[in-house]
Design a protein that fits this description.
Largest sheet: 8 strands, mixed
Distance between the termini: 19 Å
CATH class of the largest domain: Alpha Beta
Radius of gyration: 29 Å
CATH topology of the largest domain: BirA Bifunctional Protein, domain 2
Number of strands: 18
Number of domains: 2
Strand content: 25-35%
Number of helices: 16
Shape: elongated
Structural class: alpha+beta
């Protein structure tokens, strides 16, 4: 049974007092006309005399976040979804019954006020209330107004409190949908069609990741929560949708840190008659357009870094490794030689590793953390790119990843459209799994059959939306751009 604190019981007692006054403690609808931000924007520039002459009528609702009552008058500050404004409530103006209700108010309660704007002796824009309406009682006190929520984990666990007490938390929450709308608008204006594909998938594919597994009772089948939207989207290109994209949730049963959440949002887009070079141009244009639309500039501040989201650097993975640690994998021809380099540089080599896996491990450890400005890393080893076409040099795939500030933001291919080659790649992934790699694709025969009907040359890309939101809002932890992130249980 829930136990209440002394403060909560004191507020609960006020419920009965409100009922005696004929007031519904948890209220009714209120026809709100104004909001705090618009009132400040439209009227804060007027002096006291001008405000009085305008006689600006206001009808506003919100939450009490500050309160001071002395005798026959008092001030409260109301916070709505857009800002805060002060309200002056006086017995003579609202009448004895409403003033009694006003005195029963607590921080956190929702109220409605009607009145006019004026300026106090301290020159603060304020609503002089002539009608006061109790809307909903808050039983639990808000966090201390001076300190807010100091526990970061508690802010994430109780996002609603973070939004009440922190403008930064609220700004991120409001900016996120604007960024997603900007991404949608970008692809829509480029002629892409937005679609939806299944979250539950019978075959694991589209990426290298460890999945979540669930069971469908009626079908008596296990399903994976999708780790990518790639394969269904490419089936639509087979079907004739030449430009297609999806913004949606992906699920990967892997580690959690500042850059990774097991449930995250991406946009994946596929374009017929395109290739990896088309996607390079697209990702630079898309990200720079979205950043400019949201912030008004190509320049961002991310922590201590000054970033320019335009004119992306382009360099191959092997050349990037050579540039940072002077190891040239172009000259490494055997697995034995690659393993010797790995041992020398303290790189672990699991049983399933081939030369390409070792190259990727070198990049991950030595290069990725050093990348600050937007950089397109292309020519990935073919062993780690089972869904991408081979480059002219068959050791490499026509694939790139975009890195900014030490993190990956996008992954793109010239899509492999040869069903015979794709089947061989899938089968090689199965062999890797047998050697201990838990993050491999399965053989998706339904997808192979779709390719057998013919997939045109196609460019595809996936962009991490959560990380892009982190970048634009200067938020260093992914859990702070997701409204309801996954967290460990309270002890």
């Amino acid at each position: 049974m829930r136990k209440y604190s002394e403060q909560q019981n004191f507020r609960i007692a006020k419920i009965a007092q409100l009922q005696k006054l004929g007031v519904l403690p948890f209220g009714e609808a209120f026809s709100k006309v104004d909001d705090c931000a618009s009132l400040k924007k439209n009227w804060d520039s007027l002096d006291s005399a001008s405000l009085e002459a305008k006689n600006v009528a206001v009808k506003l609702a919100g939450r009490i976040v500050l309160q001071r009552i002395q005798g026959k008058a008092g001030f409260i500050t109301i916070q709505d979804g857009y800002g805060r404004i002060q309200v002056y409530v006086r017995l003579d103006n609202v009448g004895p019954e409403s003033y009694e209700i006003f005195k029963l108010g607590d921080l956190g309660d929702f109220v409605g006020v009607e009145g006019v704007l004026f300026r106090t002796h301290t020159n603060e824009l304020t609503i002089k209330a002539y009608k006061y309406t109790h809307l909903s009682k808050a039983i639990t006190p808000l966090p201390d107004k001076f300190h807010g929520l100091q526990d970061v984990e508690e802010t994430r666990r109780k996002r609603y409190l973070g939004m009440i007490t922190s403008e930064e938390v609220k700004t991120v929450a409001y900016t996120r949908p604007k960024i997603i709308r900007s991404i949608q608008n970008y692809f829509d204006t480029k002629g892409f069609i937005e679609v939806e594909t299944p979250v539950l998938q019978p075959i694991l594919g589209g990426a290298s990741a460890k999945p979540f597994i669930t069971h469908h009772n009626v079908l008596d089948m296990d399903f994976y929560l999708r780790i990518a939207t790639e394969l269904p989207l490419k089936k639509l290109v087979v079907g004739g949708m030449e430009k297609v994209y999806e913004i949606g949730r992906l699920f990967r049963n892997e580690g959690m840190d500042a850059k990774h959440n097991p449930e995250f949002t991406t946009v994946e887009a596929y374009m017929a008659y395109a290739d990896v070079h088309t996607m390079m141009d697209l990702v630079e244009d898309c990200l720079s357009t979205v950043v400019k639309n949201i912030t008004g500039s190509y320049d961002l501040k991310f922590g201590d870094l000054d970033l320019h989201i335009h004119d992306f650097k382009r360099i191959s993975m092997v050349e990037a490794i050579k540039e940072v640690i002077q190891v040239d994998f172009n000259t490494v021809k055997t697995l034995t030689a690659a393993k010797k380099l790995a041992t020398k540089h303290h790189i672990e080599v699991p049983a399933h590793f081939k030369i390409g896996h070792i190259i990727e491990a070198f990049f991950d450890q030595f290069v990725e953390p050093t990348i600050i400005q937007p950089t397109i890393i292309y020519h990935h080893p073919i062993e780690i790119s089972p869904l991408a076409k081979k480059a002219a040099d068959p050791r490499w795939a026509e694939r790139f990843e975009l890195f900014i500030a030490g993190a990956e933001y996008a992954n793109a291919f010239s899509e492999l459209n040869d069903p015979l080659d794709q089947l061989e790649r899938f089968e090689a992934q199965v062999k890797e799994k047998a050697l201990g790699n838990e993050e491999t694709c399965e053989v998706d025969l339904d997808y192979i059959e779709a390719l057998e009907y013919g997939l045109p040359p196609t460019g595809g890309i996936g962009i991490g939306i959560d990380r892009l939101i982190m970048l634009i809002t200067n938020t260093p932890n992914i859990r702070d751009v997701i409204l309801f992130p996954h967290l460990r249980k309270n002890k």
